[in-house]
Amino acid sequence: MLALARAVATDPGLLLIDELSMGLPHSFVVDMLYELVAQIAGSGVTVIAVEQFARVILGIASHAAVITTGRVVKVGRSDEIADELSGLYLGQTTL
After folding, report:
1. Hey, which of 15, 22, 42, 78 would disulfide with 61, CB 3.0 to 4.6 Å?
2. What pTM did the predictor assign?
3. What residues does 18 pair with on adjacent strands?
């Protein structure tokens, strides 16, 4: 949380987040952190995030890209990606 606070303290136009939930179990804390990220994005800051809990970030993102085995396998609106997420990870859907 401290890193997130430091990142937004300078009123950035762009925020890059890499695994905000790393080391945390999917829990209330992760939900709270991403609620803060949603508020930051809602204030007009562009947020680019890499996240292992894809469903959490898809809930607040407008667009997403799915990368598996080092390759981008899908790019689109978050709602479209969410509908295909399981298949994308299992290699059942491609571009």
Report:
1. 78
2. 0.75
3. 50
**Taking the C-alpha atoms of 66, 71, 19 and 7 in order, what is their torsion angle to the nearest 10 degrees?**
-90
Q: Cα angle at 21 between 40 and 65, to 5 degrees?
A: 70
Measure Cα distances from 92 to 54, 76, 83, 86, 87 in Å: 17, 17, 13, 8, 5
Type and span of the H or E element at 73: strand 71-77
Q: Which amino acid is at 60?
A: I
> pLDDT of 30-53, one tens digit each?
888 888 899 999 999 999 999 877
Measure the CA–CA gap between 9 and 50, rounded to whole angstroms.
21
Extract the tokens encoding 79. Answer: 């709602």
